[in-house]
Amino acid sequence: MSGYGKTSAGAVDPAQPLVNPHTHHIRLKNAKISWDTSDCPAYLPPATKMGFQLNDTVHILTGNGSIALFETHPPSSTLQVCVTGGDDIRYSVTHSNITLVFRGPAATHFGSQAIHGVVRKPTDESEHREDRW
Question: Nearest 5°: CA angle at 116, between 24 and 129?
Fold first, then answer.
């Protein structure tokens, strides 16, 4: 997260000029995988049509483990996670794109726009350890 709130045009949001960088723990639990990515946000130019998505109620905690202030208890925000890319082979996600779209109370904090990122392979074994997560 950048240190500044941004408008949809990418300019500094005058209503949130200095949003402090901070950490959230975001968890989807028992979310079903869908191979239909037709409602995933598009990259420009479109990256690929291969991929999958998860879309379910999301649990959002602060960096110290408390329920995020903007969230209800039990959680009512949803998160759409779309992973696309790789070769034109099912289950292949090498060098893939990821988008996150928050809805509900979480959208007031993260925004309702698609947040784009990249899925990558761990660079060494220390990043691949299960006990890190």
Answer: 55
Q: What is the mean pLDDT of residues 54-65?
A: 90
What does the block give as tokens for 5?
């709130």
* Structural domain count of the chain: 1
**pLDDT over 50 (residue 3):** no
Q: Is residue 19 domain-resident?
A: no
Answer yes or no: are the C-beta atoms of 83 and 52 closer than 8 Å.
yes
Quote the CA–CA distance of 126 and 124 in Å, as a whole number.
6
Q: What is the pTM of this model?
A: 0.71
Burial tier of 126 (Cβ tally within 10 Å: 0-12, 13-18, 19+): exposed
Determine, yes or no, domain membership for 78: yes
64 is a domain residue: yes
Residue 56 backbone phi and psi in degrees, to 5: -165, 175
Closest CA to 30 of 56, 53, 52: 56
Domain that holds residue 42: 24-121
Instruction: Tell which residue, 108, 44, 106, has the closest CA to residue 81.
Output: 106
- Structural domain includes residue 18: no
